[in-house]
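To whoever is on call:

I kicked off a structure prediction for a single chain this morning and the downstream step that reads the tokens threw a length-mismatch warning. I double-checked the sequence; it's 403 residues and nothing unusual in it as far as I can see. Pasting both halves so you can look.
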Amino acid sequence: MKYDVVIVGAGPAGSTAAKFLSEKGINVLLLDKDKFPRDKPCGGGIPIRVFNRYSYIQKGLIDSYSYSAFAYSPSLKYIMKLHREKPLIAMILRKNFDNELVKLAIDSGVDFQDGKTVVDIKITKNSAKVTLDDKTLIESEIVIGADGVWSIVAKKTGLCKDYKNICMCLFQEYNLGSEVLDQYLGKERTCHIHVKVNRTSGYGWVFPKKKHVNIGITQFKQVIDQQKRKIRIKDTYESYLEILKKDNVIPDNLKKEKIRGAALPTRPLEKTYSDRLIICGDAAGFANPVTGEGIYHAMVSGEIAAEVIAKALEKGNTSEKFLSKYQKIWYKDFGKDLKLLHGISGIWEKDDEKLIEIICKDKKLSEYCVDAIVGKINARTCRKKMTRRLLFIKLFSRFISKE
């Protein structure tokens, strides 16, 4: 089989790249190891900016909106409460969301094959060769690796060398029904974020949907000194459920179910391109190093990859030098933010109770934090605004104390 482009992985990055390429008249094969529709380990919270940038996505895919959020300090002493007239964040069911993106790609002319596992990638002077587990050999001009954090494409081509920058998470999605969710999390579907539950280097979340609630906990391994401190994240998750029940966030009779796990990247690969090759989405490390959210960056990277590849095929130049434009564009679009966020991700190991107290007591600081988390403003803008605000608070406090 021969194609212009073979895309490995049909998540948001791969499906988006496939759609944009096919719309340009390029012959695309989209592969995924799972049979669709399939579920995907995910909290299901998605920034509104995804739908603003990709308006072709049907709003019917949004399961619910959250209009308010509570964030708790590690001691639970301080609570930041925020309410908006417009949605803070959208909630989706990943099984439906990813399946719809694949359908959009197919409708644009993409050849989609699910249940196909890639076992090897060979880049030669004349083509890129993809081998499946059933020995099928597929040739193309270019390959896109969009196959997640454990990417076989990035590994086989030498672009992923280690897994030091990883966020581990445990979660479960409970079907409680809309009436129970109305009772506990309100018609506004209030999100709850608990910072550093039981000293874990991460946070716990409660993401309410129409009939489901997604409850999870994260641990950002890149900031932990493994020799000094080992925390069993499974124990933390069970403790978190008890905290939520005690505070009446969830029903006391919520039955424990088998916990699901996932890994998220927290730093982009040093290099996301090579001869006849581009890496996108989680495979490239494009997730927020502070929150773990990655759908927006995945889709944007897929769009940028399609733009660069279309030009490469048009000019007949699939070299590493030409495809390096991809990294320059994504870095300008969202890479500077990811770099800044990785630099401050060490907050998960610091004693930040005092900072959270200050943020909780100042409405503007609270709004800046939430706007950054949900993607309304970028991290660089947020840092500038928060720095100015904290300086103002400090100077104002000194002035009052002198009075």
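Update from on-call: the warning came from a stale cache, not from the record. Cleared it. Sanity check on the structure: The mean pLDDT is 90.
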